[in-house]
Amino acid sequence: MLNTMRNPIGMLPAGLLLVLVASSCNNKKDSPGLEYMPDMYRGPAIEAYVDYGQDPYYFGDSLAEAQRGTPSARLPVAGTIPFADKEEDAAYNFPYPYPNTPEGYEEAGLNLHNPIPMTTASVEQGKALYEIFCMHCHGATGKGDGGVVAKGGYPPPPAYDSPQLKDLPEGKMFHSLTFGKNIAMGPHASQLNHQERWLIIEYVKYLQHDGKMPGEATAAATTDSTATAPAAQ
Q1: Burial class (CB in 10 A: 0-12, 13-18, 19+), 28
Q2: How far is residue 206's CA from residue 211's CA, in Å, rounded to a whole number?
Q3: C-alpha to C-alpha distance for 15 and 18, rounded to whole angstroms
Q4: What is the Cβ-side half-sphere exposure of residue 141, based on CA atoms within 13 angstroms?
Q5: How crowded is residue 198: how many other Cβ atoms within 10 Å of its Cβ?
Q6: Residue (of 80, 206, 219) closest to 134 by Cα position
Q7: What pLDDT, in 10s, does the model give residues 87-144?
Q8: Distance between CA atoms of 155 and 143, rounded to whole angstroms?
Q9: For residues 144 and 158, is the Cβ–Cβ distance under 8 A?
Q10: φ and ψ at residue 221, rounded to 5 degrees
């Protein structure tokens, strides 16, 4: 007699197919239904001006999701002052008060002073920045003989120890770094923040004193003048 009972195991593939087809159907017209590995063929929607955050594999889903919902390119309100973690850094965040005019240049020379104490460490920091942003024109020792002058044929800027710059107030130096000077020197406010500009100025002052700290240069000059002074009769 033939066995008329069907094998239930043989019915499994058909049953699973029926479940999958049924689950992929819903009453939402815009829904594609159940999709198998949609990231393989449907690119993720990227929202403009949103920070998509850290990789959740390393930092966790909660941090990544919080950062993904945070706008990253929204302009601050006019007059907003950035927050500084350290109180001593707050002065670098205030808006620059002097306009890009001859009057602003003179006011900066009278009223603006370097807030960073001149130390060996700050001079070294200024030197590193100077070699990136200034040396190509002003030269390694501030003589106005940088590479674009020696090899490029551009007119040399005044040497730092020249009558034009030797006694230039540091406020005017900062103003020139911020807005540029004449045609040859462009503004550096977008490349250097306030603190970095002051560090470069410290190194410029170091070069103006023949590679010595101001106190050392004064002591050396006093010693030289004493040594060369004629003996009292």
Answers
A1: exposed
A2: 5
A3: 5
A4: 7
A5: 25
A6: 206
A7: 778 878 888 999 999 999 999 999 999 999 999 999 999 999 999 999 999 999 999 9
A8: 12
A9: yes
A10: -65, -40
